[in-house]
Amino acid sequence: MAPERVLRDLLRVSGEARVIGELITGRDGNNYAPGGESWKCAFAPDESRFAWSCGFRKVVILPWNRYKNCLLGHRHRGQSDRNNTNGEGYEVFAEKINIDAGFPVTSLAFGTGTPEQELVPVKREYWTRFNFSKDLILATGHNNGRIRIWDPYTGKLLLELTDHMKPVTDLAFAPDGSLRLVSASKDCTIKVWDMSDDGNMFKTLKEHPGPIRSLCWSPDGRYLCSAGDKQKVLLWDMNSYSLSKRFCGHYNNVLSCAFSPDGAMLATASCDTRVIIWDTSSGEQLRVLNHMNPPPGVIYMSGENNSVVRGVGFSPNGCHVVTICCDGFIRFWNLMYEEDGPESVGSALPGDAMLNCSFSPVGGAVSVGHASGSVVFFLAPTMVPSLLHLSRMSVRRSLGDITARDDVVLPHTLKPYLQYKQW
């Protein structure tokens, strides 16, 4: 079935996801030289910066707090973003930082040792000594197994970390300000680095039988999820650095994982055409988001198919999930609805493939990196969560799964809601 017809069919039952901005390399997404892909994009926790891996060793850092204001006009696909100015005529791209990372970039991540609410963007001077405990830092992972740490205000190389034997596939900083960096690799290991100790690698986690594809921290920094080949989804206790739980249910390699903002749910995207949303505490499957309708049989799921789900992410309010798929579409799923289909659908750049997706920290936009190295920004769905849902998130964030505790007495009808079995 032609992609145009599939999109028309999807839009009959859902809305259209709106494109609000593009960063275009000009390369062909279907006929490109290896190394030109945008494998990862990242927002700084305070939304001050946006890092874009645009291929061929190049990383561009933009002032996202200014650039996002240029997107508020909801520009349509095809409009140029090259000379964007804000309302005062300020040229946004005058502040961009270009980094030649030295090697092809396979992943990147922002980190900071300062609590997010205290992190204030500053203009760095060349004589200022870098303070890992206070300043924003950028880590890049490379195809030769190296990890490089950068000053995102100047583009200066600060550290190089070497221990992986194969390409680094994902990076993630702990959200608790501890400056712990975790890295995943095709060498089947997870490394834990202490950036407050000059990047000392102090732990190696080994349980994956194949390459690891994705990492994500729980919002409180207590748990780490790792997903990879051979259907593996593992949950690690990062206080004891031990394996805590295995999630079993996928039929093919798992490519992406993401926690909900309160840590109560975990979403995993797989080559089996599905996204599974799990209860983090019990490991129970709460929802399954199918990217083929009707869902294929298990034999088809475990083999090659055209509906591999490459990326997944939760919105900051926990009401929506975004997914990108090899069928060329981005989908926004409203978890508040019981319907199985997506709420809105968008398409990749013509003749291109989507490789990664990320919600901005406070919502409003979703970035999608492409095989050509380009990035497209979609308008994130807007929704005012109910007071009941906000209360549930607050309880789960601060107290965890209180439904499993003997010292808390709850009404019988409230437990399914707190466990996200009811919306």
UniProtKB/TrEMBL annotation:
Keywords: Ubl conjugation pathway, WD repeat. It holds the Pfam family WD40. PROSITE patterns: SOCS, WD_REPEATS_1, WD_REPEATS_2, WD_REPEATS_REGION. InterPro entries: SOCS_box (IPR001496), WD40_repeat_CS (IPR019775), WD40_rpt (IPR001680), WSB_SOCS-box_domain (IPR051983). WD repeats lie at residues 161-203, 205-246, 247-288, 302-335. The keyword NADP does not apply. GO terms for biological process: protein polyubiquitination. The keyword Cytoplasm does not apply. Residues 379-423 form the SOCS box domain. Coiled coil: none annotated. CDD domains: SOCS, WD40. This is WD repeat and SOCS box-containing protein 1-like.
